[in-house]
Amino acid sequence: MYRTKDGEDIFIIDGHVHFWDASKANQKNVHGAEFINCFYAYHSNLSPAEEVWPREKFEKYSAETMYNDLFVDGPDDMAICQPTYLYDFYTNGFNTTERNSAMVKKHPDRFILNGAFDPRDGEQGLEALHALAEKFKLKGVKLYTAEWKGESKGYKLSDKASYRYLEAAEKLGIKNIHVHKGPTILPLNRDAFDVADIDDVASSFQNLNFIVEHCGLPRLDDFCWIATQETNVFAGLAVALPFIHSRPGYFAHIISELLFWVGEDKILYGSDYGIWTPKWLVEKFMNFELPEDIAKETGTSLSRAAKKKILGLNAARIYDIDVEAQKRKLGVAESVAAE
Fold it and tell me: Using CB atoms within 10 A as the burial measure, which of 57, 75, 111, 196 is most buried?
């Protein structure tokens, strides 16, 4: 938990974390190496120098390292595990629901487990989604529309097959649909991450929340024009937030546009761990103020109340988390752990 200088505790839900295995032993082909190379470039170029990891650690970190970085050294109170399978690139998958579930099983009060689906899997995939939802009581999924599968190099949420899966998700009580719509990652195709299909499905599935991870970057304008119309479209800050260090002016532009168009009630913090660690991200975010000229032009402000919503309260609302009850539960867990 982050504590302000005047002693206020800020409850934090990290909306975007991974427990991946990109080790050379798990890399299936050159594409597995290209993918993690791209991640490491983002990590190295956008992190403070003292926060850059050795390459070997970045490729495969331990469960203990992840827990400490998020909850001991870092200020997170809870975190949402978002899977990215990539079986075409990694023998055992890159970051699967099953792998993430080990973290959730060990620390059930800390982690929320999300699943995934791919509409190109047809009837077999629908059966697998039902089984996954029943096994893990899913409230959310993470979709990767640019993931390669055989000869296919991506799909759209507006495809008929995608509709069948979204209908199934709604019936199963999976209401939070996290979608990677951000910068491309080598060797994936940039156009397969286009945000246009969000507009279609958000209108058609009003009972689902569509959390657009990475807020559509580099298509921020497109995303904002969609999200301002669709009440069930949210912005995830993963990837956008690290610019607070390397390009604070650019981050000011991103966050002010999101505040203007989307609003403080529909923006969710995410560290994108293990690309970045939450300690420095949250500290810099809590200390960040919008430049006066940008605040004046957009008529927005990044108040403490807004920061509290973004860092945890918005995610708590859409995942039905009672924050006060969770604080008490975590307090008990911390006391037991200290004995």
Answer: 111
Strand partners, 143: 179
Pairing of strands 13-17, 267-268: unpaired
Residue 31's nearest CA partner among 75, 80, 78, 86 is: 86
Cβ contacts of 191 within 8 Å, gap of 6 or more? 154
pLDDT recorded at residue 338: 44
State the DSSP H helix or E strand holding residue 141, giving kind and residue range, or none if neither: strand 140-143
Instruction: Provide the edge-to-edge strand list for the sheet that holds 13-17.
Output: 13-17, 78-81, 111-113
The Cα angle at residue 142 between residues 334 and 282, in degrees rounded to 5: 45
Please tell me the distance from the alpha carbon of residue 113 to that of residue 284, in angstroms, as a whole number.
Answer: 27
Give the mean pLDDT of 19-44. Answer: 97
80: number of Cβ within 10 Å:
24
| pLDDT band with cut points at 50, 70 and 90 for residue 76 | very high
Distance, in Å, from the CA atom of 240 to the CA atom of 245, rounded to the nearest integer, reads 11
Segment among 16-20, 70-74, 83-87, 334-338 with least mean pLDDT: 334-338
Task: Give the C-alpha separation, 145 to 286, whole Å.
Answer: 32
Reported as type and span, the H/E element at residue 337 is: helix 323-338
- Cβ–Cβ < 8 Å for 122, 98: no
The three-state secondary structure class of 26 is coil
Name which of 19, 37, 52 is nearest 272 in CA terms.
Answer: 19
